[in-house]
Specification:
The chain is α/β, with parallel strands linked by helices. The protein has helices at 39-49, 71-86, 99-110, 119-136; strands spanning 2-7, 12-19, 25-32, 52-59, 91-95.
């Protein structure tokens, strides 16, 4: 089953695609939130284009202050709720803590310069791979 991964951000939203069989995810691109009038519609359209049957959105949980919700986490949860209302497919969430550090290491290991590396799409791939691995173990 194809799955669309989403790295939520207030400036850019990264997208990746993967499948439950291989448990591999591949970065696609980012959506510029400021330029896109209907971000939710754009995510749904890309999910349909990729043949996704599920969407997974990374939620930036806080490392400190268990139980408290930060502004970015609240915005991500609001995004998920809006996506769930409009999407014709299941929408799940995945903890995205530490994906920024992982993505920075991927970029350094690849030798790509920052301007040639879509950090948000790579983060979406990391989130999606984490989700695919976690759900495969169940």
């Amino acid at each position: 089953m194809n799955v669309l991964g989403v790295d939520f951000g207030t400036r850019n939203i990264g997208l990746a695609v993967g499948d439950t069989e291989s448990r591999m995810a591949f970065p696609l691109f980012s959506i510029d939130v400021q330029k896109e009038k209907d971000v939710i519609g754009a995510v749904i359209a890309h999910a349909n284009t990729e043949g996704a049957e599920r969407v997974v959105v990374g939620i930036p949980r806080r490392l400190a202050g268990a139980g408290s919700v930060g502004d970015t986490e609240k915005a991500a949860l609001d995004f998920v709720a809006a996506l769930q209302r409009r999407a014709q497919m299941p929408v799940d969430t995945e903890d995205e803590r530490m994906t920024s550090a992982l993505v920075d290491r991927w970029r350094q290991d690849s030798g790509l310069k920052k301007k040639h590396f879509d950090k948000d799409a790579a983060a979406a791939a990391a989130i999606l791979e984490s989700y695919l691995e976690r759900t495969a173990r169940k």
